[in-house]
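Encode chain A's predicted structure.
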Amino acid sequence: MALFLSEAQRVESELIASGTTVINGTPLKYGLDDDGNTIFEKTDVKVVIGKLPIKWINVRNILNGIANSEMGFEPFVDQRIYFLNPKTNIMFHMYDDRGCLVWSDVPDKIRSLS
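Encoded structure for chain A:
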């Protein structure tokens, strides 16, 4: 956990120093701490992690709902949803109707997607 927190602090420092204001369409909010230092304004979130067989998940409806959210159509899904396959260590996140992000611990596993 300590490694994760130190890496998060390092990334935050780099983003603040570079003046980054948006990541993947999500605006970053900055504020000042009690000493006047620039910091990220953070939001409390609820994280739900479930391990389900893929056949129990209606992936098509979820992806359509994510695309609908940006377009103003219904039904829509207005949450961030990530799909992780623990057997392949591949993670997928569709951020809106314009695209998605795919991660892997080994680039060759997803190279064919490009």
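Residues 2-40 form one domain.
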